[in-house]
Task: structure prediction
Amino acid sequence: MKLLLVADKESPYYWDYYQPGRLDDIDLILSCGDLNALYLSFLVTMGRAKVLYVPGNHDSTYDTRPPEGCDCIDDKLVTVNGLRILGLGGCPLYSGGANQYTERQMVRRIHKLWLPLTLAGGVDIVVTHAPATGYGDGEDYAHRGFDCLVDLMDRYHPKYLIHGHVHANYNVNRPRVLRHGDTTIINAYERYILEIPDK
Result:
């Protein structure tokens, strides 16, 4: 199964210089936020893959003008082709803007998903906007991670945690792919192709 992961910056490869067929081999698109709604609608229209997304802290217009043809998975657990996918959008509170949460608020959001996670027998992919603390987060206050995402990985052992929020050009030496226990952590900035075995 081939997944296209996107976040934070519209990829010129798929947007400005798109050529027919570039999305034909993509089975699923996961958006980690802070992208133009029209861009996500374009991806779902030009390809054959479903687009699942969570909002970022700059996606305040998603409430009134969401990406057409795409599915918001914020605070939801969904199953696609046998993959259990959990969505947790937003970032740590830093300015009081849209989709910003305190650590305690994020803990409560995760706690509310306990029953779906238990009934599903866990989760395969966690899609977030912000990273987990110590795993790809930034040094500045606005781009810090959530401690509770580390706890989530420790408790449910997802195969992947995919995030955005921290742009690759903030620190070119920051690894894009990290590991925490059983979980591979990927920064989806702009675009990243992930191939995983079919379930």
